[in-house]
Amino acid sequence: MAHIDVAVTGVGYSKHVSKRRDVNIAELVWEAVSNCYEDAGLKPKDIDAVVTGNMPAFEGVNMPELWGAGHWGAYHKPLIRITTGGTTGGSVAHAAYYAVASGLYDTVLAIAFEKQSDGNSTMGLNTVALADAAAQFQQGVDPGFLASFGGGAVGIAVYQAASYMKRSGCTTHHLDKVSALCRNNAALNPWSHLKQPGLTPEDVAKTVLMQYPIRFGHVCPATDGACAMILTTHEKALKLQNKPAYILSCASCSDEAALMGISGSGTTNMDPCAQEHCKLAAKWAYELAGIKDPRREIDVAEPYAPFAHQMLMFYERLLLCEEGEAPAILDSGSMNLDGELPVCPSGGVISTNAIGASAMERITEVALQIMGKAGERQVKKEVHKGVAHGWGGAVNLNVVAVLSDTPRRS
Asked: Which of 238, 285, 230, 233 is nearest to 104 (CA)?
């Protein structure tokens, strides 16, 4: 069968805030879906299939697609729901990509969302973490490491941040600079959650210390929000968009043992900042995309970084520089909107984290940059290729996608 090029031809967001008490889940998602249909110039009848995803346990609604399908244009259409933790949105987008690339469907709607105010995400995470920590304790795992689980996602992140700082020479001032960079970018994004124009690293340094080295200003918010994206073939995309964004490749890699796995082994546990599986996923994605030198060929990057240190850590793990170089690159201004390789021009996950949607929003943001439709957050250089990343699962899974303004093979 001939190769099928896949393009993003429509993107839509809902309003992103901490509590959307004015809408239920189905209505929240419809905001993003309706905006996506409008952006693509399509209607529900033009969609062949739907892929959706969120973290059902966080809202306490099992199989929300059964409730929402009729609201989203999925009635009587093939639909699949995917849940892979923080990578959910990325996994949803990858599945939609393969549905088109395989020739199974021509046009697919991808939907990802989270309405955290309907539940308690931190409690959901802690319940799993503490149960697994108890199992690991019986395996003789380091008690100091197990103690990190008591803080949920933040507890794990501080352990990782301290390891990254030791390996890279990164300082807390670099973490402050990351937060200021992202939150100022977010102020230019009408769909972002935390908008803090004029925020300085010194402002971030004054926020409450949660657990060294992470301060309140280094942490993502809990967001209610949804994202939708329409993928279609090269031929159809050219009829709908002046400049489609093509997905050149998708890759994913899971470590041999989860951070919360009962075996208590694997590189994720030995050093939570190593992220060897991210490097493998990036390597595979670049190879599939025909990219030989990502440092020179990638024009914009959207790593999944709900904590400040992760933007620098994953910049390195995405093979955009050598390990330990990211703090100096941040200092150089290269990551700014007008820099050589802008990072998180959207404001990133540290500014907006509707968990199920966050990894997909990395892909949609790169697509908007390529299409020239990012508005005030459009980077100053011409964008030909970009990389989008998601991190999560059981803190052991990385997903990577490479996008371009030209198809891989016409």
From this structure: 233
CATH of the domain at 373: 3.40.47.10
User: Is 160 domain-assigned?
Assistant: no
Query: Could you give the angle at the alpha carbon of 342 between the alpha carbons of 312 and 84, nearest 5°?
Result: 55
Pairwise CA distance, residues 133 & 146, whole Å: 6
Average pLDDT, the chain: 90
Instruction: State which amino acid sits at residue 255.
Output: D
Residue 409 lies in a domain: no
Distances (CA, A) of 183 to 115, 117, 197, 269, 338: 22, 22, 7, 31, 16
Q: What ranges in 216-354 are assigned the alpha helix state H?
A: 234-240, 267-270, 276-289, 294-297, 308-317, 326-332
3-state secondary structure of 50: strand
Phi first, then psi: give them for residue 386, nearest 5 degrees: -145, 160
Q: What is the pLDDT of residues 84-97, one digit of tens each?
A: 989 999 999 999 99
Residue 62: per-residue pLDDT: 86
Crossing angle of helices 152-168 and 308-317, rounded to 10°: 60
CA 355, chain centre distance (Å)? 8
Domains identified in the chain, total number: 1
Dump pLDDT digits (tens) for 354-385: 999 999 999 999 999 999 999 999 999 999 99
Domain that holds residue 293: 6-119+221-404
64 within domain boundaries = yes
Residue type (1 letter), 273? C
Res 130: pLDDT: 54
Q: pLDDT tens digit string along 173-202?
A: 999 999 999 999 999 999 999 999 999 999
Q: Say if 200 falls within a structural domain.
A: no
